[in-house]
Amino acid sequence: MTRLRIEGEGITTSEFGFAELAQLPGQITDVSQLVPGREGGGVRLHSLLEAVGRTSAGTYLTLESADGTFAASVPLEAVREAIIVYRLADGPLPPHKGGPFRFLIPQVEHCTTGEVDACANVKHLGCIRLSQEPGRDTRPTSAAAHALLHTHTGHSS
Ligand SMILES: Nc1nc2c(c(=O)[nH]1)N[C@H]1C(S)=C(S)[C@@H](COP(=O)(O)O)O[C@H]1N2
Ligand SMILES: [Mo]
Questions:
Q1: Radius of gyration for the chain, computed over Cα atoms and rounded to the nearest angstrom
Q2: Neighbours of 13 (CB within 10 A)
Q3: Across residues 119-148, what is the average pLDDT?
Q4: Ligand 1: which residues within 6 Å by Cβ?
Q5: Which domains does the chain have, with CATH numbers?
Q6: 50 has which bridge partners?
Q7: Rounded to an integer, what distance in angstroms lies between the CA atom of residue 22 and that of residue 137?
Q8: How far is the CA of 126 from the centre of ligand 2 (A)?
Q9: What are phi and psi of 79, to 5 degrees?
Q10: 128, 14, 11: which is closest to 63 by C-alpha?
Q11: At 20, is the secondary structure helix, strand, or coil?
Q12: What is the pLDDT of residues 5-52, one digit of tens each?
């Protein structure tokens, strides 16, 4: 069973599977209510951070895909409203929707527009890491690199 790991400064390393995520407070039954055009259900990032006893220690959040091929590091403050999408109807979020775990930032800016943009909506999320300094970030920085990435991964945006 795939699990989502949370680790870093000031927290207890923890792992969450579908069942654990479903038991947290802060459930979002239908993410399309918050992010038009998106499907599935999720839980607020804030609930996960509370569950692992987050103190004020970490200021950056690094989101890494389970296979390690993609990572984005963003200020925690800027993604306070983020959601971990983990379900579609009663089952897990399928891989073609970015599952089993997908980071989703409501009202995010377009790709390559800043420190927090749509590229930080990491799919197939494996690990969330808290740190004082920015962490690993493989997001494309140029339009050309971005176009290439989209070609390779079949992005729709
Ligand atoms: N694991 C993983 N997550 C990823 C990417 C990727 O290549 N791998 N691309 C990112 C980029 S650049 C964008 S713009 C969004 C696109 O997500 P969408 O196709 O659902 O809009 O996913 C992000 N999450
Ligand atoms: Mo992107």
A1: 15
A2: 11
A3: 91
A4: 65, 70, 98, 111, 118-119, 121-124, 149, 153, 155-157
A5: 4-152 (3.90.420.10)
A6: none
A7: 29
A8: 19
A9: -125, 30
A10: 128
A11: helix
A12: 999 988 889 999 999 999 999 999 999 999 999 999 999 999 999 999
